[in-house]
UniProtKB/TrEMBL annotation:
NCBIfam families the record matches: RND_mfp
Disordered: annotated span: 351-372
Domain CusB-like beta-barrel: 208-281
Multidrug resistance protein MdtA-like barrel-sandwich hybrid domain boundaries: 60-200
Organism: Hyalangium minutum
Key words, A-Z: Coiled coil
Gene Ontology MF terms in the entry: efflux transmembrane transporter activity
Gene3D superfamilies the UniProt entry points to: 2.40.30.170, 2.40.420.20, 2.40.50.100, Helix hairpin bin
PANTHER family: HLYD FAMILY SECRETION PROTEIN, MULTIDRUG RESISTANCE PROTEIN MDTA
Protein name per the record: Putative RND efflux membrane fusion protein
Coiled coil: 138-165
Length: 372
């Protein structure tokens, strides 16, 4: 068997003698889409303590019942915009209206009593001056007038309280905003303190977050803060530190800060979780996405496209921007270089590639804002 295979092999060799060996076909280049390539350009990198927390409305109010009684109407639904002073709910005020009527009557009686007492005091004063009655009679008239005025003041206080009680049956919006919660319906019986409606002003939000205590003395009000919402790796939002708690939280060992965030277009929602960074250091530099860096090599490296092929380039890294997910490249790359990200990083060095579209700039996606 081995002899036969050898003879067949020899015959094959003799048959091809003098013929040129066929050339092996070169593989076609691998196509890379815009999601797999990034063009390196200068950009602003910022570094500082990383923070996280939830977005809260700077102005929010949970309106509660101040009097007991059945709810007659509710004019507020979740998500409904309201103006300051708008009637949101009304509690039955029949009993308070009766008290108001009685208080008004008591004030009128007290006012008449005061007028009579004042007239009597004036008449008594004239008679005393004429010597018809004694000074003691005049003093009694003065005392009667003082007592009548005291009764009038008491009646007026009861009238003011009755009016206030009637006013407490009307639940109105304390400011322009949006109804976020509605806890009652018409027909419910409420007690003082019962939650009725919650109104928030979504035009200005506040990020309550913690940062390491060692940064507490280095930051001040007005320091810029960049953050991203959980689940949104593309869009970056900005705010400024408004207040810094002067005490360290004993449970976490960190300092709480309060970041003011404009939300005029109301693109941000109350309650969303956000992660960001206080910009304590900033500079303009060439940057590469963190996802493009291969930290397994020493020094770190990236795969870039050069003359239609992939080549590995060692890089010297600097300032790291955890919010933008970018890192400074001090050396190893030049502006305009194209590096690969994502699954394309696993391609072997020397692989022929073809970029279908213009590469993205660092950190930009289809819906991302232009870098600052």
């Amino acid at each position: 068997m081995l002899g036969s295979l050898a003879l067949l092999g020899l015959a094959g060799c003799n048959g091809q003698k003098g013929d040129a060996a066929p050339m092996e076909a070169e593989p076609a280049p691998i196509t890379l889409g815009p999601e797999n390539v990034i063009r390196i350009e200068p950009r602003t990198l910022q570094s500082g303590p990383v923070i996280s927390g939830s977005l809260q409305a700077r102005q929010a109010a949970t309106l509660r019942a101040e009097v007991a009684g059945p709810v007659l109407e509710v004019n507020a639904d979740q998500g409904q915009p309201v103006k300051r002073g708008a009637l949101l709910a009304r509690i039955d005020d029949v009993a308070f209206q009766d008290q108001l009527i009685a208080a008004r009557s008591a004030v009128r009686v007290a006012e008449n009593t005061v007028r009579v007492a004042e007239a009597e005091e004036e008449r008594t004063a004239k008679l005393t001056q004429a010597g018809v009655i004694t000074q003691r009679d005049f003093e009694r008239a003065q005392l009667t007038r003082h007592q009548a005025q005291a009764q009038l003041s008491e009646a007026q206080s009861r009238l003011a309280l009755a009016r206030e009680q009637v006013g407490r049956t009307r639940i109105v919006a304390p400011f322009d905003g949006v109804v976020s919660e509605r806890q009652v319906n018409a027909g419910d019986v409420v007690q003082p303190g019962s939650s009725l409606v919650t109104v928030v002003d979504p035009r200005s939000l506040e990020l309550n977050a913690f940062m390491p205590a060692e940064y507490g003395g280095r930051l001040k009000a007005g320091t810029p803060v960049d953050f991203r919402l959980q689940g949104d790796a593309e869009q970056t939002f900005s705010g400024k530190i408004e207040r810094i708690n002067p005490a360290v939280d004993p449970a976490t060992g960190q300092v709480r800060i309060y970041v003011t965030i404009p939300n005029v277009e109301q693109s941000l929602l109350v309650g969303l979780f956000a992660q960001g960074r206080v910009a304590s250091e900033s500079r303009e530099a060439l940057a590469v996405p963190l996802a493009a860096v291969d930290a397994r090599t020493t020094p770190p490296s990236v795969m870039r496209v050069r003359d239609g092929k992939l080549e590995r380039a060692s890089v010297d890294l600097g300032l790291r921007d955890d919010v933008a997910q970018q890192i400074e490249v001090r050396s190893g790359l030049q502006a305009g270089d194209v590096v690969v990200v994502g699954s394309a990083r696993e391609l072997a060095e020397g692989t022929r590639v073809q970029v279908t579209q213009a590469p993205r700039q660092p950190g930009l996606g289809p819906s991302s804002p232009t870098p600052r």
